[in-house]
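Late entry, written up from scratch paper. The run itself happened at the end of the previous shift, but nothing got recorded in the book at the time, so transcribing now.
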Amino acid sequence: MPDSVSSDAVDSVRATLARAGRTDRPKVTLPDDARERFPTEEVVRLDLGGKTRHVRIERALDDTLELRGAYANARQAREGDGENHLVAWADAKGLDFGRTVHVDIVDEGTAYGLRAPGERAVYTVPDAPNDSLADIAKQTEENR
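Output as recorded:
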């Protein structure tokens, strides 16, 4: 059974909720000094309001790292397909563009949490992934 950890007990990064281009869709821009804490162009788990979502950490044109969407599964996150749960989360929290948000590092490289300023959260620490199964899944996906 996975362990639980409070947001008070993990490292956090202060990020910014920003506008994605000229749209009204949100994205989370990560600070440059935290770049090494996030795997670029990889899909990771994101606890968003108590639900596990999946995000792809992308490099923007200006070389900053950003989270452009939170999806129900890893395939949707890779393809940017399906409902983007980041939109509903930002709306429910009443957060405007330019606001600080906290990205909690639950398990560096694989699991993170997103919360509004002043909020606390309890995260479920995921079991360590089985590297051989992950490699097989990745190869299968690439060969589609």
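The longest strand covers residues 11-19.
(Scratch paper discarded after transcription.)
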